[in-house]
Specification:
37 strands, 51% strand, elongated, four-stranded mixed sheet
């Protein structure tokens, strides 16, 4: 009996180890589910463009204020990543985040997103003191475009501007008023908040004249201007050009000081393009001729393309009838000096009394009209059936000089008026008289926007440059 008992004792563990009792096998793992919810809060919420990535698989769309389910997942840890191109929204909490999905069960997680406003407000204050205050107030130009009116001593709130930096300019300032710190400001508009800027102005008895720069001779030089006809300005390098038809030259001087730099002579033009020095004067005599460089009349600078345009007009004025051979010359910067790049003859029958480049397009004036000239195709952009150009603007006054600044066209008239004209509509928004200030003949105009200055050159002796507050 003891022997049998001993045998049974030895066999029993073996039976237990090899037996077929189903209760002792591991259970089959059941799939789990994961529910993800997206809550988007705050101002200017991004209501589209959200994508959710599970375990580095390609992302799938997830709509705000809704849920999505990932079904039949293997139980265990899974990684989620939420993203969007919305720059004004931030995912709160962990992102990416890890979620444990139970076998046979459902895990839930919520992504909470906080969005900030894409816009803000700007509050502009004008504070004016002194005498002869401008009763019409001023205008605030934002980013070179839209303008808002502000009273002489007042405040204007500009709503819903994009968040970030904006360039401001106070325009419509009377010539007898000066803006402390200048007319230009840069202000940063905060998300959902209000930026504030203040313009302080002092007005005095009207003249607006800041200084007079001599040209006989130019500052720092023995070179003198003889007969001014036109001006153009480039803010790049503070370059101011003056066309002198008596000297057959274009002078470049420093815009802020009037200091002489160098000149472009008619002989330089002819040296670069010999055919510009000879034209047919129409008298039938092959031994006599005229030149396309006889009389420099107009200048214009293309700020976007970097080209300087010179127009020469009447070429044999003493003949009967006078020979008219106008031409346009284009100069480009080569090694710090502007040199001839190309030229061609212009259509006759047009004054070309002034020129300006607006948005890369050349415009020329004759009498009171301004017309677009297509330099590349060597023709007016639009003409009537008789070949005369179609006017872009007709100002009804004799034009002596043109300059552009933002969306304002400045016009110098032959009867000594200075006009600020809205370029898009031709509306005259400011008129000031330059009479009684010493200018004998209006010849050329330039605007130095960085210094809020308007330059007018006198066409008569001593050909001084008058610098006015803009």
């Amino acid at each position: 009996m003891r022997i049998k008992a001993a045998v049974l004792t030895l066999i029993w563990p073996l039976v237990g180890a090899c037996g077929g009792d189903d209760s002792l096998t591991s259970p089959v793992q059941q799939p789990g589910h994961l529910v993800v919810t997206l809550d988007v809060l705050g101002a200017d919420p991004a209501m589209s463009g959200w994508r959710l990535q599970l375990d580095h698989e390609p992302g799938s769309p997830l709509h705000p204020d809704s849920s999505t389910m990932f079904a039949d997942l293997v139980g265990g840890r899974h990684e989620l990543l939420l993203w969007s191109e919305a720059t004004n929204c931030t995912v709160m909490g962990e992102n990416p985040r890890t979620v444990s999905v139970p076998s046979g069960g459902t895990a839930r997680t919520t992504f909470e997103v906080q969005c900030t406003s894409l816009t803000g407000d700007l509050e502009v204050t004008a504070s004016t003191s002194g005498s002869s205050l401008d009763p019409n107030g001023f205008r605030v130009r934002v980013d070179g475009g839209t303008e808002w009116s502000v009273a002489t001593n007042g405040l204007v709130t500009i709503s819903d501007l994009d968040v970030g930096d904006h360039a401001l300019k106070l325009v419509g300032v009377a010539s007898n008023c000066a803006v402390d710190g200048g007319k230009h400001r840069t202000v940063s508009v905060p998300s959902g908040g209000t930026a504030r800027v203040r313009f302080e102005l002092t007005c005095e008895l009207p003249t607006g004249l800041k200084r007079i720069m001599p040209t006989k001779p130019f500052a720092g030089s023995a070179t003198s201007l003889r007969d001014a006809e036109a001006m153009a300005y480039s803010r790049s390098g503070d370059r101011l050009w003056i066309a002198d038809d008596d000297s057959d030259a274009v002078y470049e001087i420093e815009g802020s000081t009037g200091a002489y730099r160098y000149r472009i002579r008619a002989s330089d033009v002819v040296s670069a393009a010999p055919d510009a020095g000879v034209c047919d004067d129409g008298d039938g005599d092959p031994n006599t001729s005229c030149s396309y460089t006889d009389e420099f009349e107009s200048l214009a600078y293309d700020h976007s393309g970097g080209s300087l345009y010179l127009i020469s007009t009447v070429n044999a004025p003493n003949r009967t009838p006078p020979v008219e051979k106008p031409a346009v010359f284009r100069f480009v910067n080569q090694g710090g000096r502007f040199r001839l790049a190309s030229w061609h003859e212009l259509p006759a029958g047009f004054d070309y009394s002034a020129a300006v480049v607006v948005n890369g397009r050349l415009y020329v004036a004759s009498g009171s009209i301004i017309a677009e000239y297509d330099f590349s195709n060597q023709r007016f952009a639009a003409t009537r059936s008789d070949g005369s150009p179609v006017a872009t603007l007709n100002l009804g006054v004799g034009i002596a000089g043109l300059a552009i600044e933002d969306n304002s066209l400045w016009v110098l008239t032959k009867d000594l008026l200075l006009l600020e004209v809205r370029w898009a509509s031709g509306e005259v928004i400011e008129t000031r008289s330059l009479e009684g200030l010493g200018i004998a003949r209006a010849a050329g105009l330039a605007v130095v926007d960085a210094d809020d200055e308007i330059l007018v050159v006198d066409g008569d002796d001593p050909n001084s440059i008058y610098v006015f507050r803009e």
